[in-house]
Amino acid sequence: MDILWKENGQFSEKGTERGESLWIQDKYRFSDEKDEFRKQSRAPLTSNIEAEVAVIGAGLAGILTAYLLKENGIQAVVLECRETGSGMTKNTTAKITSQHGLIYKKLIMYKGETRAWEYATANEKAIEKYEDIINKLEIDCDFEILPNYIYTLDNELKLKQEAEAARKLGLPAVFTKETTLPFKVKAAVRFDHQAQFHPLKFMDAVAKDLTIYENTRVTQIHKSGLIVTDQGSVKAKKIVIATHYPFINVPGYYFLKLHQERYYLSALECNGDPGTHLDGMYLDADPDGYTFRKYKDFLIFGTGNHRAGKYQPLDAYAKIESAARKWYPNSKIIYTWSNQDCMTPDSIPYIGTYSARTPNIYVATGYNKWGMTGSMVSAMIISDAISGRDNSYSKVFNPRRMMLSGSRVFLKDTAIITISLLSEYLKIPHDKLGDIKKGQAGVIRHDGMRVGVYYGTDDKYYFVTTKCPHLGCKLEWNQNEMTWDCPCHGSRFDYKGNLINNPAMRDAFDSCNKKNSK
Fold first, then answer.
1. 3-class DSSP assignment, residue 228
2. Which CATH class is domain 95-197+258-343?
3. What is the average per-residue pLDDT within 41-53?
4. 3-state secondary structure (DSSP) of residue 479
């Protein structure tokens, strides 16, 4: 039996992030009597079973795919290596919108009107589908219909052109100069009838009656559809890879077609600041700008977009705090957290069959920071494909599409990968262990190998290999999060070397034999 993919290495416990998001804090802050969405514990897979479809990954995309398949009368099981919703879904801004930055003029120019219409229609239908599910299941997830804005402080022409392109595709776009932000903007594009919600409350309700096996790590995937886990197996006719970043390198070669970017968020307790009375959701057209949305008495406020593993250095939380003091002087930052997403060269997700050689395997990835609509679009397209239904907007998301519009990004990604791989072997200056200050990290050379060292506030040194266990790129220190991050594909590890984010499938300390020492 041919093995398509096999895990190489062992995992330890998950590393820790800087802080837990507003969604996690809000979901569990009530007493058992008041909290309708308290944590559900699901058992791992401990036997050998069969299923029509196996979905790997219990994030929003995986859960929605299993839910829609069940609606179509198809049995699906979900395999999750940790807990449902424990990945990127818990850290999103949770904006449900078809307005994905300044994308529609670019889509029309490089993809043509038909493909641009498919993209716009799919994302508008995603909003409608959320509303339908929430009404059907009577889900209390703080769902609100609100406008979404993209604003600019300097380039009015670009926004006029974007509004015209969006209207041409039938989208609810309005060019305006009026906003409820605490500062004056040059212009904005408003999309009406968009939405926001609490993603974990929604997902808990949708997942309630699904077959989900948590703490179940996939260790092998066979071409025949056999999935081997650490305690049991699933024989499936179809497989859906919904693991944020696709972990099967060949075939598919997604490591050449994706990179990851990080962004940083906070939740402000508003305390009556007039600038917090927003009429909708907002995002700056400038990648270095800010995102805004309300949730109950909180304002979700963030900035600091950058490629994972690449820092300038950037102190994103200090930037957020400074802007909050300026615009919201009476407010207080209660929570801070971060997230990251997979980025495609042409800004369109990969949704469909994993590769030409694996027609029984599907993939959903590359949401370009728009994972709420992207997850629903993925679920609709993949569930239709497995159910044998036609889908009028799936072609634009084909993972094997031509990408003329993304050639510059693709070449840049290839150059970063090449440089990172080579730098592991170049003779470049390294830090001395005694020069690394407490609370900081550096790179030393030991026995001919590059070793990352973090000097902890507990007066201990923590050693990791700087060679990413995914494909061997050089890990970089992230002072914002106290993590080691890969600039090539976005794998992340805590300062002890424990894996936080894929595509790496093992920790970063098993090839480094040093022990933590004083």
1. strand
2. alpha beta
3. 95
4. coil
* Sequence-ordered list of residues with C-beta below 8 angstroms from that of 498, at least 6 positions apart, any chain: 12, 13, 14, 15, 507, 509
List beta partners, residue 446.
449
Contact between 275 and 184 (Cβ < 8 Å): no
| CB count in 10 Å sphere of residue 116 | 24
The one-letter code for the residue type at 334 is I
Question: What residues have CB less than 8 Å from 281, skipping those under 6 apart?
Answer: 93, 95, 97, 146, 147, 148, 149, 194, 196, 292, 293
Q: What is the chain's alpha carbon radius of gyration, rounded to the nearest angstrom?
A: 23
Indicate if the pLDDT at residue 513 is higher than 80. no
Domain ranges, ordered by start, for the chain:
42-92+200-257+347-406, 95-197+258-343, 433-501
Distances (CA, A) of 306 to 18, 175, 382, 412: 17, 28, 30, 14
Written as six digits, the tokens of 18 are 């800087």
Q: Read off the tokens for 410.
A: 């693709």
Check whether the bond before 329 is cis (ω within 30° of 0). no
Higher pLDDT, 9 or 66: 66
pTM recorded for the entire structure = 0.85
Bridge partners of 55, per DSSP, are: 78, 240
Helix ranges restricted to H, 175-234? 199-207
Please tell me the distance from the alpha carbon of residue 201 to that of residue 199, in angstroms, as a whole number. 6
pLDDT tens for residues 268-305? 998 777 777 899 999 999 999 999 999 999 999 999 88
The CATH homologous superfamily for domain 42-92+200-257+347-406 is FAD/NAD(P)-binding domain (3.50.50.60)
Q: Are 410 and 159 in contact (CB under 8 A)?
A: no
Average pLDDT value for the chain = 87
The candidate with the shortest Cα–Cα distance to 373, out of 61, 96, 161, 112, is 96
Give the right CATH number for 433-501 from 3.40.50.720, 3.40.50.1240, 2.40.170.10, 2.102.10.10.
Answer: 2.102.10.10
Token pair in block for residue 160? 């006029």
Both tokens of 498, joined, read: 């424990």
3-state secondary structure of 242: coil
pLDDT, greater one: 465 or 170:
170
pLDDT digits (tens, 9 = 90+) for 365-374: 999 999 999 9
Q: CA quadruple 178, 181, 187, 189: dihedral positive or negative?
A: negative
Contact 166, 173 (CB under 8 A): yes
